[in-house]
Amino acid sequence: MAELPDNIEFRADLSKFARAMNAEVKETVLKVAFTLFGKIVVASPVDTGAYRASHQIAINNPSESVVKPEKGKKFQKRGATTRAMKQTKKLKNYDLQDIIWISNNLPYAVRIEHGWSKEQAPKGVYGLSIQVVENDLQKELANIKIPV
Question: Which regions of 1-148 does DSSP assign to beta strands (E)?
């Protein structure tokens, strides 16, 4: 019977540790997702602004919609980045068991990824952005502090 208080304390410590780790992991995932999305948006070639404005974030299921300009308006080059970055608000609904999807459903998005934009994005957008963020993630993981 004397061991019971130690056991309860041990479980409480493990629970506290698990909550702290979950918070660190969630913060890291969100930081990576936000960074990746930002890099994708900035690396996007711009002609009319439609491609840059059409990147989307979705939680658990990829978006199947195509972003369209407001009724009676065209995409503007200047506002494309701002419009796309508004998608990051969707990340506030993220929980650890969720999957974050980043996509662009314009008909020519795949062509851009395969070098169609010879001048502005000859090596694509998503793949290169993922490589950069993957390297950054290795550094980020090294900074995770495990509470003791």
Answer: 55-59, 100-104
